[in-house]
Amino acid sequence: MYIIEYVSTTLVLFFITFFIGIFIRFAKTARIIPAKMLSAQKGGLFEHYKIVAAIIALLVIMHLIGFNPYAGDNVLAALFSAFLIAAALYIVLVFIFVFLFYFIAFLHTKVAKIEDREAYYTRHNYKLVLTALVLALIIVLVTLIPVFVELITGS
Question: Rounded distance, CA 30 to CA 127, Å?
Fold first, then answer.
């Protein structure tokens, strides 16, 4: 009956864990390392399949003992849904800001007539991505703090 919810939650969790893995590797190495996308290898979409399987198993167990994780009438289900939305929103915002910042950097190299663009991008790459990560986090937190407060207090 809730198969569509479990499948969509699984897909969203793979999406979230994939990009969190990318962000963590970027923070450690300051570069994005390409890998086979549809694999369980390091850098692949299914790299964190054990984490996703554990979360889905927990949701199924909760459902089997009578606590519906997809019902809108309990606080835990609402917090779980809000977390999934917040994580997906964060990832989307990061990519929008990274695209925007690189576009601005591209325009800057054109206007300033910078000859060695690759060196310019390499020098500013970490700052551009880190700014996108922080700015997206601030926007998601400012947007969702009132939602979490309302869910917790019940008002």
Answer: 10
HSE-CB for 135 with a 13 A CA cutoff: 15
Kindly indicate the confidence band of residue 117, based on its pLDDT and cuts at 50, 70 and 90.
confident
- Expressed in percent and rounded to 5, the helix, strand and coil fractions of the chain are 75, 0, 25
In the chain, the amino acid numbered 103 is F
31, 127 Cβ separation under 8 angstroms: no
* pTM of this structure: 0.79
DSSP for 87-132, please give it.
HHHHHHHHHHHHHHHHHHHHHHHHHTT-S-HHHHHHHHHHHHHHHH
Let me know how long the chain is: 155
46: enclosing H helix or E strand:
none
